Amino acid sequence: MRDSSRGSRALKGTRERIVAVLRRKASTANEIAAQLGLTHNAVRSHLTVLQRDGVIRQASLQPSASRPAVVYELLPEAEAVFSHAYIPFVAQLVQVLQQRLAEGELDEVMRTVGRRLGAEWPRLRGPLGHRVKEASRLLEELGAVNEVETLDGGFVIRGHGCLLAEAIHGRPEVCRAMESLLAELLESSVRECCDRRARPRCCFAIAADGSTSGASAQQQREPGRS
User: Fold this and answer.
1) 58, 113, 120, 204: which sits with the fewest CB atoms below 10 Å from its CB?
2) Strand pairing of 154-159 and 146-151?
3) Structure confidence by residue, pLDDT tens digits, 93-105
């Protein structure tokens, strides 16, 4: 899917019912309409939105007496919208890795994960302030409500929660993945300053171009943060 957040927003009410049909079997608009008790035009309207948002696609044409009917199917990557297994799976995976890897190895693994994720996304261009705002927007699309603050000529992206809260459990290594992801996207020095207490909150300090962010990030930590 081009944007999973748009896809999830599309799956409401009638569209959610249409997707449920397509998860079981690729179908034409008429077949969907018959199953759900809707008009052909109503179904076509919803299919257009779902296709625009990257949830479904036209798979083939079905011969008919008049003209071929379009058969719609769910995009394979759209299945991620329906899965609730990712977070518990990742949480258990991190626990197992922590038990199996030597000290420091999990940290490097997570940094590598972040760098590889960042390498899959287009580079952010323009002045640092613009790049930080774009990075903030990307995090919002992933589900991370956040705001951008200025600090010592640099910036802080401060979250109002944590995307990976279930996997954190006080583990700074998980935060390193997001730190490396942002550093890759911004092409700038980034240091996590996350709150990993009972209700984790993301925090990433981005240094002004040509400087380091370590001191600024440390200043952002509150007592009790690890």
Assistant:
1) 120
2) antiparallel
3) 888 998 999 878 9
